[in-house]
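FAQ: What does the model actually see?

It sees only this:
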Amino acid sequence: MDLDSFKNSLAEEAPPPNLSRALQALWHDAKGNWDIAHKLIQDRDDQIAALIHAYLHRKEGDTSNAAYWYRRANRPMITGPLDAEWESLAQTLLSQSR
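And it is asked to produce this:
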C-alpha cells in the first residue's frame, strides 16, 4: 500500500486489513479517534510506537508528555505542522511494510 491508498482508505468505516498496529493508530487518529489511536500504541515499547505516542501527545497539546516520548524515541521534538508529521510517519511505516 502506498501513501495515497492509505489516505484514500480513510473514507472507509474500518482500516484496511493487515495494517500494523502503528498504521492502525495513524489511521484512527486521522479519522478523529485519538483515544483508539493512543490505546493501540500505548503498550508498545519500540521506537516507532514512541514516535507515534509523541505525535499524539503533541496533537493533544501535552508538549511535556510529547517531549518525553520524543526522548524515548531518541529523536528531537518536532515543532512543524502536525499533518506533515502524520504524513511522514505514515510514509515511513508504509515503506517499511513493503
